[in-house]
Please model this.
Amino acid sequence: MTDAVNTSVESSVKRIASLLQDSIDVKQRLLADKAMLSRIADVAQSCVEALQAKNKLLLAGNGGSASDAQHIAAELVGRFELERAGLPAMALTTNASQLTALSNDYGYEAVFSRQLQAFAKKGDVFFGLSTSGNSANIVAAAEVAKARGMIVIGMTGESGGKLDALCDICLKVPSDNTARIQEAHITIGHILCALIEGALVS
Model:
């Protein structure tokens, strides 16, 4: 390889190492935060109790957070690590006809809250994923969820945004970088799946 190519590779390797270290640092901060670990355990227990009472979990987010919502729901409806019956979890981000109809007729702010009006009941759990905590459609959905007597769980970045005040529990990742927050959200999501599944199977 030429010197220019070697320099480019070395630069990329340093950048990769830096990004990995940034991701690790966020998770290390989560690990060191005992109150946060306790909140994650409380969320898992709330989900277990809701599922045992024949309630369901409803999840929503935008962009990468929509993918995280779908990922977590899929692990619960399918399986995470243990063989078991499917669990009633649904991402509100997957029906293109519904999403486009609601956006067209009511505005994008209503795409999740309108679905909660249709599908949710008291005792269900709503997960609102928003790295800023200020996504208007997630905040609107949390307001509907709270009014319906649902358990409201937020997954945000370190500020919590407007969503924080609407949550029964808000899991605030200690970062303001969108990518790092989303990486931590899916890690927390996997932990929740493991705890929920373990409690219901054992």
